[in-house]
Amino acid sequence: MRRVFSLSAFLALLGVWAFPGSAQAQEQTIIGAWITTAWEGQEADPQPGMLIFTETHYSMMFVPAGMIREEYTGEEMTDAEMLAAFQTLVANSGRYTRSGDEITTEAYVALNPNYMARWGENQLTYTFQIEGDLLHLTWPAGFARADAPPFTGTFRKVE
Prior knowledge:
single chain, 159 residues, alpha+beta, eight-stranded antiparallel barrel, 3 helices, 38% strand, globular
């Protein structure tokens, strides 16, 4: 009886090792580089954007839904062109943690100087879902403005 139990336990463990998806749903990885493909509620093609996740750190640069980054026309940017360029870009990098379908970021450097290098004081939690090579990332309410609702971007994994 004991030998049968030991053999059964060994075979069960072998099955979990050989076919991990059969014992539990495999957690999909957010690690990699992702480019913007769509913004929820926006019909037009999105402006460029990229998210990069390593095991512990992230970097994101993107133009939010509904915004357009215009190219400047002179030899040097005017103050107005520079202001417009910075107002249409989200850029920050730092570390993150993951818990299930949520990631919490802490920016070390950011376009917005009031958001960077305050470890532990500048956390932002997002929800996400991965479908094949697509990442759907939802920013929390109040991200862009205090009265702004949550919004979702879709990003495609790139090699």
